[in-house]
Design a protein that fits this description.
Structural class: alpha/beta
Number of strands: 12
Number of helices: 12
Radius of gyration: 21 Å
CATH architecture of the largest domain: 3-Layer(aba) Sandwich
Largest sheet: 7 strands, mixed
CATH superfamily of the largest domain: Type I PLP-dependent aspartate aminotransferase-like (Major domain)
Strand order of the largest sheet: 1-7-6-5-4-2-3
Strand content: 5-15%
Distance between the termini: 42 Å
Order of helices and strands: HHEHEHEHEHEEEHHEEHEEHHEH
Number of domains: 2
Shape: globular
Length: 370
C-alpha cells in the first residue's frame, strides 16, 4: 500500500468508525468521508459521483456486471477467452459465449462481430452484456475498447459494454476508457490501496440485479455497510496513481525494457510473450523453452525474487494458463511461462538482480533436467 493511503484510512479504523448509514453526527462524518472518496474516484475515472459503486473488490464488481445484467435483462453474456476468471467463470455460469483472441491476446473482432450479428439476425438470443478487459492481468495486452464498443453499438445497441479495468489504472488514462463502456471494474490493491475494496462504475441509466440485497446502500446497487476506511484509502491511492501515471509509465517502461532485454541476452531459448507495443509498461511476461516453471519459481523465491508462472495447479499437475492457451502458445513454451511485474517501487537494482537470479535459476533447472 501507498503510505498516503494507509494514513488516509487509519482514522476510520479507530476514531471515526461510525456507520455512514446512521443519522448521528459521527455517522454523518463517515458519510461525508465516503462521499468525498466517491468524488475523487469519479474525477479520476471521468464519471458522475453517483455512478461510483463501492464493492468488496474487482471480483464482486465483475460478477455484478455479468450475473446482475443477465439476471435483470436476460439474454446472452459474451467475453474474451483471456478474461480474468472473475469474468470468465461468471459468463460460463450464465451460459454465455466465450470469444477467441489473436496471438497477442486481443479479442478477435471478427469472432465478436459474428456473435453480435448472429444475435441481430435472430440466430440466437440477444446479447445483453459484452465484457472485454482493458488490460490483461497476465500478459499485459491492451484492448481497443472504442472498437469493441462500436461493434456492440452497431449490432446489439441494447447490450451493455463492461470492462475489467483492474489492471489498467496505473497505465491507462481511465478518461479514455469510460466514454466507451457502461460498466467498469476497479480494485484498490492494484494501485496501492488496500485489499477488499473495489469499484463498479455504472453509467447513468444502466440497471442490473444486485448480488447483495438488504439495507439498500449504494443506491440499492450493493447493500451492506460500506467500508469507509477502504473507500477513503482507495480514493487516495487512485488519485496518486493518476497524478504519477505518465511519468511513472515512462520510467517503468525503461526498466521493463532493460529487464526483458537482459533476460533475452542472458537466457537461451527465452522469448517475450507479447510485443511491447501491444502491452502496458509494467508487464514483463516471458516464456522459456525446456523449463518447468514450478521448479523455476521455487528457485527464484529462494533467491528473493518473487514471480508467478501465470498457471494454475489442477489435479496435482501444473497446467498452462488459460490466457496462453487461448493465445495459441505452444504447451512446451507455456510450461516455462514466467510473469514478472514492475511497479512504482521497482528500481534499476531490482532489475539487475532479477536478470542475474533468473539466468542462474534457469541454468540450474536445465542442468538437473538434462
Amino acid at each position: 500500500m501507498r503510505p498516503e493511503a494507509i494514513a488516509a484510512m487509519l482514522p476510520f479504523l479507530d476514531v471515526q468508525f461510525a456507520n455512514p448509514s446512521g443519522s448521528h453526527r459521527f455517522a454523518r462524518q463517515a458519510r461525508a468521508a465516503l462521499d468525498d472518496a466517491r468524488d475523487v474516484v469519479a474525477a479520476v475515472v471521468g464519471c458522475r459521483p453517483g455512478d461510483v459503486v463501492f464493492t468488496a473488490g474487482g471480483t464482486e464488481a465483475d460478477n455484478t456486471a455479468i450475473v446482475g445484467t443477465v439476471a435483470r435483462h436476460g439474454g446472452t453474456a459474451v467475453c474474451a477467452a483471456t478474461e480474468h476468471h472473475a469474468v470468465l467463470h461468471a459468463v460460463e455460469q450464465v451460459g454465455g459465449v466465450v470469444v477467441g483472441v489473436d496471438r497477442f491476446g486481443h479479442i478477435d473482432l471478427d469472432q465478436l462481430e459474428a456473435v453480435l450479428a448472429g444475435a441481430a439476425a435472430g440466430e440466437h438470443p440477444p446479447v445483453s452484456v459484452v465484457s472485454v478487459m482493458a488490460v490483461n492481468n497476465e500478459v499485459g495486452t491492451v484492448n481497443d475498447l472504442a472498437v469493441v464498443a462500436a461493434l456492440v453499438r452497431r449490432w446489439q445497441p441494447a447490450a451493455l459494454v463492461h470492462t475489467d479495468a483492474v489492471q489498467a489504472a496505473c497505465w491507462v488514462d481511465l478518461h479514455t476508457v469510460t466514454p466507451h463502456v457502461d460498466l467498469m471494474s476497479l480494485s484498490g490493491h492494484k494501485f496501492g490501496g488496500p485489499k477488499g475494496i473495489g469499484v463498479l462504475v455504472v453509467r447513468e441509466g444502466v440497471t442490473f440485479a444486485p448480488l447483495l440485497v438488504g439495507g439498500g446502500q449504494e443506491r440499492e446497487r450493493r447493500s451492506g455497510t460500506q467500508n469507509v476506511a477502504g473507500a477513503v484509502a482507495l480514493a487516495e491511492a487512485l488519485r496518486l496513481a493518476h497524478l504519477e501515471r505518465e511519468a511513472e509509465g515512462v520510467r517503468i517502461a525503461g526498466l521493463r525494457d532493460a529487464l526483458v532485454d537482459g533476460l533475452v541476452a542472458a537466457v537461451p531459448n527465452l522469448v517475450e510473450t507479447v510485443p511491447r507495443a501491444h502491452k502496458v509498461a509494467g508487464s514483463a511476461h516471458v516464456c522459456i523453452s525446456g523449463v518447468e516453471n514450478e521448479a523455476l519459481l521455487f528457485l527464484l523465491d529462494d533467491a528473493g525474487v518473487c514471480a508467478s508462472a501465470a498457471s494454475a495447479c489442477a489435479a496435482g499437475a501444473m497446467e498452462p494458463s488459460h490466457v496462453l492457451a487461448a493465445m495459441g502458445v505452444d504447451r512446451a513454451w507455456a510450461a516455462g511461462a514466467l510473469r514478472l511485474t514492475l511497479g512504482r517501487t521497482t528500481t534499476a537494482a531490482d532489475v539487475d538482480r532479477a536478470v542475474s537470479v533468473v539466468a542462474a535459476a534457469v541454468a540450474r533447472v536445465r542442468e538437473f533436467s538434462a
